[in-house]
Task: inverse folding
């Protein structure tokens, strides 16, 4: 259910056979408040918080100047989000300078990300990276299988083969387009435009996903995430509605098929990033929504 001003109102309606009302699907949201929780990694490079979803995980780092973050034998493509600080990304003998306010995708294999001036570095990986998944604050949060979430399958390799691909986030808003969406073989990332001041409470967007999670990463501001677990015929599935208040930086992973919507509540700039793994077909089917669609094909 979207307000008519929301571009998502143009998405195709939910398919028949929705999982709303099916029993045994209940799961708790995964909450990470990086602004008050201890980091999972702390060394001369900086502080890093790790939190996972079913198919993806986030490494949020406050990096020291000159810090380098390397991956050896990386099994699949990962994402680098640079909200403000720039970085140098190295892969397969190639080195690329990436400005702040950018997003980049790094191929499998050996790679590194260096922040000459330090700052905030957000890396997003699939949970196929077992070493990182095991280090997450909620590493045991998925011991109970989510059987209604399909096994992870990457999307097709990029057009023209593997290379570092970087994109500026300096993209003007466009009527009818939702946020600033980029995808790779493992992830879809929507860096929403900054929202100044609280969101109009008369224009909310409660909706649900049948079989995939949504990660909501707060980079600045304050948010209230409203969650409603659908009633089923089994009272063991019932949960009270929740209004989860979170500052920044933080990550909330919303399980399917929980009905959810988020309200920016901070008085200043509120910046939220939505994360999905693998990419979403419905967003990908909307012309012009995925800003790097020419580089990453849709599965046949």
Result:
């Amino acid at each position: 259910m979207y307000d008519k001003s929301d571009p998502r109102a143009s998405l195709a309606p939910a398919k028949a056979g929705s999982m709303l009302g099916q029993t045994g699907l209940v799961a708790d949201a995964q909450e990470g408040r990086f602004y008050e929780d201890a980091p999972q990694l702390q060394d001369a490079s900086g502080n890093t918080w790790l939190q996972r979803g079913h198919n993806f995980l986030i490494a949020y780092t406050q990096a020291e100047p000159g810090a380098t973050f390397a991956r050896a034998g990386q099994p699949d493509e990962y994402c680098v989000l640079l909200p403000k600080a720039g970085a140098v990304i190295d892969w397969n003998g190639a080195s690329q300078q990436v400005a702040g306010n950018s997003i980049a995708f790094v191929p499998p294999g050996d790679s590194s990300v260096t922040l000459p001036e330090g700052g905030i570095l957000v890396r997003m990986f699939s949970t196929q990276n077992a070493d990182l998944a095991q280090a997450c604050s909620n590493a045991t949060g998925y011991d109970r299988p989510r059987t209604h979430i399909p096994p992870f399958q990457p999307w097709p390799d990029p057009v023209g083969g593997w290379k570092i691909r970087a994109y500026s986030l300096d993209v003007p808003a466009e009527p009818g387009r939702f946020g600033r969406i980029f995808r790779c073989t493992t992830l879809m990332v929507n860096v929403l435009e900054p929202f100044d001041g609280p969101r109009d409470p008369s224009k909310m967007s409660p909706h649900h996903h049948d079989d995939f999670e949504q990660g909501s990463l707060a980079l600045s501001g304050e948010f209230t995430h409203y969650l409603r677990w659908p009633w089923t015929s089994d009272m063991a599935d019932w949960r009270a509605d929740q209004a989860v208040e979170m500052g920044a930086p933080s990550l909330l992973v919303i399980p399917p098929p929980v009905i959810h919507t988020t309200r920016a509540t901070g008085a200043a700039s509120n910046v939220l990033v939505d994360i999905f793994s693998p990419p979403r077909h419905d967003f990908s089917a909307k012309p012009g929504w995925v800003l790097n669609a020419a580089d990453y094909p849709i599965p046949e």
Q: What stands out?
A: The chain is about 5% helix and 40% strand. The CA atoms of residues 140 and 238 lie 22 Å apart. Residues 130-135 form the longest helix (6 residues).
